[in-house]
Amino acid sequence: MRPLILFIVFLLASKFSYSQIEIKLEDAPKHIGDSVKICGKVASMRFVENTEGQPTFINMGKPYPNQLLTVIVWGLVRQRFPKSLEELFNNKEICVTGKVELYKGKPQIVVLGNEQMSIKID
Fold first, then answer.
1. Which candidate, 42, 54, 50, 51, places its Cα nearest to that of 88?
2. pLDDT digit string (tens) for 106-121?
3. Which of 70, 94, 95, 107 minimizes the number of CB atoms within 10 Å of its CB?
């Protein structure tokens, strides 16, 4: 019985340690390495169909190259969405969850599953 209780405590502790905090879009650079939830306006998008991995770059806050956050969705993940990303998210307020990374001085989140993105509902 004691090992079961310890296991449950461990699971609960690990869940809380990996919980995402909600941050403002402009605060993304202060949270490099953190798992967060960020909401903001999609300012521009680009699907690079002829590049390896077929990435979609979603620029939040401002259009590229002045974006506050880049969200990257690789082609295999893109296929899991019910409609095209452009149809679902372009020019809309969205929320993204994931780990903030730094790439060429700009914060980014790489989406690993479609459950990480949603349209913001007030």
1. 42
2. 999 999 999 999 999 8
3. 95
